[in-house]
Amino acid sequence: MNKRPKLNIPKTRFEKLFDLVATLVFLAWIGYLLIVWGQLPDEVPAHYDSAGVVDRWGSKWELLLLPIISCLLTVFLAFLEKHPEWHNYLNLTETNIEFQFKNSRMLLNVIKNEALLFFAYISFQSIQVALGKASSLGFAFLPIYLGILFGSMAFFIVRSVKNK
C-alpha cells in the first residue's frame, strides 16, 4: 500500500475516557499550581537524578515549563493520532488496515496521556519538595515510569505483530 486510505474510525470508549482523565488532571494541575504559587519559595527543584533526588534547583518560574511542554506534546500527538495513515507499519494489509490504524492510534493516545500524567506528577512532587512536604520524587519513580511507558509500547507492538 503505497498510498494509504484515510479511514474514519471513531475513537474507542477507552481513548475518550483516557483523554478526559488526562484533561481533568491537566486542569487540576494548573489550578493547583496557581493556588500554591504565592507559597512557593524563589527556588524549587528543577532537575532530578536517576534516584529521584533533586540535583539542581531553579527559579519557581521553571515550574511553568512542564505544563507548556505537556500542552505542546499533547497537541502534537493528538494531531498524529488523527492521521494513522502516516504511521509506519510492519504488516499492513487490506484485511487488517482498520485494526492496525486503530491500534497505532491507541498507542499514541496512551503515550500522550501517560506523558501528561507523569509530567503532572513530577510537577506536583516538585511543589511538595519546594514546600518541604517531600524530599524527592522517590527512588521507584524512574523504574515505574519506564516500566509503564515501555510496557505500553510493547503491548501495542505485540498486538500489531500478532494481527497479520
TrEMBL record:
- Membrane spanning segments where? 20-40, 60-80, 115-131, 137-158
Identification of the protein by name: DUF1648 domain-containing protein
**What InterPro entries does this protein map onto?**
DUF1648 (IPR012867)
Q: Which domain of life is it from?
A: Bacteria
Q: Does the keyword Transmembrane helix apply?
A: yes
Q: Would I find Membrane among this entry's keywords?
A: yes
| Alphabetic keyword roster | Membrane, Transmembrane, Transmembrane helix
> Which residues are in the DUF1648 domain?
25-69
